[in-house]
Specification:
Holliday junction branch migration complex subunit RuvA; DNA_helicase_Holl-junc_RuvA_I; ATP binding; DNA repair; 2 domains; cytoplasm; alpha+beta
Length: about 200
Amino acid sequence: MIAYIDGKLAYKDPAQAILDVNGIGYEIKISLATYSKLPAEDERVKLYTYQHIKEDAHTLYGFLDPNERALFMLLISVSGIGPGTGIVMVSSMSVGEIRQAIVQEDVRAIQSIKGVGPKTAQRVILELRDRLRKDELLAKAGVDTVPLARAHNTNRAEALAALVTLGFARAAAEKTLDTIQSRHGNDLSVEALIKFALKSN
């Protein structure tokens, strides 16, 4: 997993950026929030990344703000939300707006995002509201919740990527991980998630 890329901004548009690192250009999908804060081309920039691995493609998603990346990772941990929908969500609303909509169970706000139907909006709220409420309490207590969110959701994302690489269909792998996490909780390591998944098939 590539955690971040630090290099010269060779190109940018509202959907992607290309970072030049020692003569190698990395094409990275970005959110509108990240695009609006990028420096001018040829200046140096650091993007926090998520690498999405499919049978036919490896795609990088990048964010200037680690909090935006953490929320993106939370969103794509929800069954039925892939990176494409996740990037649309964080492009349509700010990190604070999405977190508030989930905590306040505002289905209409989540559903207003392109590509997110009522069932998916309800699933996002159902799966993430308690976690985000807990994050709010921890934040009020002075605990940094970004590493916590990154750890829990990177584990699922990495396990999912590994299972797809091992030959699982993405939909089947997501369903298997849903079952495992409903039985054993959301704090399992990458290795534990993969082992449970392999034993279930």
